[in-house]
Fold this protein.
Amino acid sequence: MIPTTDAGSLRQASIGALLFDMDGVIYRGNAAIPGAAALIANLQAHQIPFLFLTNNATLTAAQFQAKLAILGIYVDQAAVFTSSMATAAWLSRQAPPGAPVLVVGEAGLRQPVLAAGLTVVTDWRQAAWVAVGLDREATWSSLRDAALAIRAGARFVATNSDATLPSEEGELPGAGALVAFLRTATGVEPTVVGKPQVAMFEQALARLGIIPAQAIMVGDRVETDIVGGQAAGLRTIGVLSGVSSAAAFAQAVPPPTWVFDSVAEINLALFE
């Protein structure tokens, strides 16, 4: 089955809400994908619900909101749901209040963990949990401490396992690179919370108050956005502005429902 690029079929589809990956879909690094601002403005004007659903755990919802505003995309903080937020929610259900968590990650992970009522510790000997996301300031020492904590019995949880992160310069090492380091160093498989895990999609749909059949996931990665969206019961759109190629989308089993060059084509299909 080859995914369709027929704009008419998308225009005629019943759409209750759109979920968007961000890196490679809405922007690359600090540059907006052409057409992204226009699409979001049109969705707002037509009162079509949407949610940014990103595995990028480096920024808080407020920081993502500010970044989008710089790119000409104006949304509420509630429009952003990150893998770190999903991970913190998962931890709050698994761990007792105040449980000590060693975090390998940036403010985007530390703040949701704290907001979930858990304690962020820096001494690996105190950690009952190790939470790992992309950390662009990670050092051998911070990874050593995480490995020691996991080997001592702390449970290992990861925001996501994305190997790379799209940027203007090309694909950069992602959270999955750090996760792989610790997996190799400890022999322990982490619990991954972000895409393609169904739990993150379920949390997103609950925020929107809709059922899977009403939503469409828009993403640039077969292995996370498309596979995860399909597993959660959503229709999917693959875009060619990020990581996966047209061939990769076509070879996926099953492929996404639609494939477009970018969100600019989605905007044309839906509104022009």
Remarks:
- The chain has a mean pLDDT of 95.
- The chain is about 40% helix and 20% strand.
